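User: Quick sanity check before I run a bigger batch. Here is a single chain. Can you write out its predicted 3D structure?
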Amino acid sequence: MNFTKIVGVILLVAGTASLVTGSFSYTKDSTVVKLGPLELTAKEKEQVNLPVWLGVGAIAVGGLLLVFGGRKG
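Assistant: Done. Predicted structure follows.
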């Protein structure tokens, strides 16, 4: 299995996961107050919504790479 086909499989899996989940969330630390050596931080939960076209595009490109990626012209 060459590099192009591996990238194709990764895109297929990522595109399918994008369509199934629709979004992902992460937690980031942000500094609220900083007074000299004293620092107050807060954790904020952020959510990122993934557009449907992104998942469909990743699946399409991954499929094309699997079909045409190993061929030499």
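The longest strand covers residues 23-35.

User: Great, the batch can go ahead then.
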